[in-house]
Structures are given as structure tokens and as C-alpha cells.
User: What shape does this take?
Amino acid sequence: MKNYLKTIPKIKFKGSKSTDPFSFRFYNPNEVIHGKSMKEHLRFAMSYWHTLCGTGVDMFGSGTADKSFSKKEGTLAHAKAKADAGFLLMSKLGIGFFCFHDVDIAPAGETLAETHTNLDIMADYIKEKMDSTGIKCLWGTANLFGHPRFMHGAATAPNADVFAYAAASIKKAIDITKKFDGQGYVFWGGREGYETLLNTDMKLELDNLARMMHMAVDYKNKIKFNGPFYIEPKPKEPTKHQYDFDAASTISFLRKYGLEKHFKLNIEANHATLAGHTFEHELRTAAINDMFGSIDANQGDMLLGWDTDQFPTDVYNAVYCMLEVIRAGGFTTGGLNFDAKQRRGSYTPEDTVIAYIAGMDTFALGLKIAYAIIDDGRIDDFVKERYKSYTHGIGADIVNGKTDLEKLTRYALSNGEITTNTSGRQEMLESIINSIMFGNRF
Ligand code: XLS
Ligand code: NI
Ligand code: NI
Assistant: This one.
């Protein structure tokens, strides 16, 4: 730990022409855009797991990045060194929030009681760091997918003892998140799904998942944890059929079980693409159902079919994401958590800093360009114009519930064949986006 990031300066905004890899080119935290600073708009968070725990292990090889921070792994001394490293990194980058799993911050004990003691020690340690740096917790969560005890699921496990263990872990993780004054709490159901119906009672599993969520809501109310609960949809990986497949199926689950008032969604870019959707589709689905909460910012690789959790550098995706965020009214309790890791070959601490800078600059561009698109107005005007038939006449009657199939049949018969339709002009709209993005440059 002694030498961790020793040669890295505090990262400053140096403008788009800067060739210093340890500077921001586009993210200028205090620059005010539409009444709020970039920092307030974007609410960046560090993911504790990737940044402080992930070593780059994959199916074909061991870790390449040393995350021992000069301490023996699995000890409290190591957990403290990780926290020291994390707060140093966030301070150097000017990142205001972090997100964590229970297992990220403290070593597992021999028993559940010992694990809880370790968590308490580390929660005190981290809380002090939060108080002295002003860095806040965006959300906490319990890792209910890594340990072998959760091989068949947690809340959807066939074994009631596993369900109870999961409940104890959730309770503890909510307690710690509350202690950190966390802005929210996430449920990601990594093993809440199944591999084959031959061994699965799907209805009982889903009912039990809802039972766990209801208990969590009751507990949250009891201890007055104010932040929202988020569900983070993902279609697959690790399980084949994951129950919280995408935004739409998650919302329908929440409504079926009367949970919708207590939850919002945490949308992850790479999960959207795994579900066969765009990032912006998932964000829009959340927003129009009043479920927009927070974002796990990353990107996948079109040529790989898994959750590669790459740092987001695709500016178009960031633009389309920020358009949805702005239209949803911006973040309240949520933010942009970099659920992202460096490639296995970019294994040095310097690469971590560079990766965060790349992600933060990408979203700074996304924010600025999204506002430029909104200010330009052509895209919004086009959409408005496209639906204008619903603002008067028969369209207004449809929208206002003043018609029925018989009346519409009479109208259609008198109206005759539809001989014209208006062009959707997709290519024109895409080229407007390009001209806004690059027009001033050339
Ligand atoms: C895994 C998920 C996970 C959640 C938190 O794919 O993205 O990292 O964000 O458990
Ligand atoms: Ni995630
Ligand atoms: Ni993920």
C-alpha cells in the first residue's frame, strides 16, 4: 500500500487538447451545465469489487493484477489496506461515491457471527474514512452468488436454510449501508434463476423471491433506511434463466407481488445488451414506468457474449444514456457507478486511474452532447411532429378515451384507404446527431 499511486497526481481538468494521460480532457467537475455542476449531474461512483478486489482472473488464467496492497489476503489488515487504497484512488480522481458488497469490505469469518464481527470492524473503519474525506456511499448490496452455499440460489434456493442465511446477509448489508448513510440498496439476483425445469419449482422460487423482498421492505421501514431499493436486471450469467431478465420483466414481477412502490431499477449497460436491448431502451423502460433509479456504467463487446464489464468509452452510448437520464429528470439518489474493470492485460494501478479517467471523460462528453441535442431541438421537435395526429380530431379522442371500436370502425370506413404515411427519417436523425457531435470540429 505504501507505494500505491505514489507517482499519480491529483487528476485535474486540463482541457481537450491535453496529452497528459493523468488529466481529464472533458470532465470538468465544477463546470456548470444547465444549472448544475458536472459533478452533481454525473454522481460518479467507484465499484469496490472490481477496483479493490478484482485481479483479472478468468476461465483460462489466474489474476494478473496484484490487489494484496502488501498485506496477507483474507485478513482484516488486508481489508483495511484495500479501504485505504480505495479512498486514496477516489480522492485522486475526485469521485464522490462508492458502491460495495458485504464480501468486498471484510474477510469472511469461520462462522456467520464472525463474519458479522469483521463487517462491523470494517464498517467503523470505512465510516471514519468517509467522514474525513466527504466521500459518500451510493449503494450497498449483499453478495449472494459467490460462495458455494448459494450454488442453487439465495432467496430462490430449494433449501430453506440457505434462504435464512441469505436473509441474515441482506439484513446485515442493509444495516451497514444505513450506517454509511447510503443513498440506496441494490438487489442483483446473480443466482436467482435456474438451469433446468427438470429440478425446479419455478412458482415457489418466484414467490419466495417476493417474500424475501417484502421482508427487506419491512426491515427497511422498521430501521428507517430512507434510500430506495433497486433491482438490477440481468438476463443470464451466471444462471441460464435469470428471473430479473430485463427492466420490463422486473417491473412486472414487482407489480405482481405488490412491491413496485418500494423499488426502482439499477440499469447496467452490459446487462441491457445481454438481454438483446440497447442501454437506452432499458433506461426508457424504467423511466416511463417511474422506476428510473441508478446506473451501472460499463460496456460489453459486440463480439463476446458475456458481461465483460469494460470501462465505458463509447461516446454514442454515453450520449444516448445521458439523454435518457436528463429526460428522466436527472439522478436523485442514483448515480453512475463504474461497474467496470480493466482488461486483464491492463493490470497496473496506473491503468486503473487511466480507465476511470476514460470513463469519466466519456460520460462528461455524453452529458454535454446530450444537452446540445436537447438545446438544438430538432430531434425532440421531430418526435413531437411525428405524433401530432394524436393532438386533435380522432387522435385526441383516442388519447382521451372518448372512442371505441365501433366509432373507430365508422371513422375508418368513412376515411377510406391509407395511401400516405410519413417517413421515419432515421438516417436524417442519425446524421443530425453526428453533425451536433462533430460539426464544430471540422
Ligand atoms: C454482475 C452485477 C453485479 C452487481 C452488484 O453482473 O453487475 O456487479 O452490480 O452485485
Ligand atoms: Ni452491476
Ligand atoms: Ni454486471
Summary: Residues 379-438 form one domain. Residues 310 and 342 are 6 Å apart (CA to CA). The two ends are 46 Å apart (CA to CA). The chain has two domains: 12-375, 379-438.
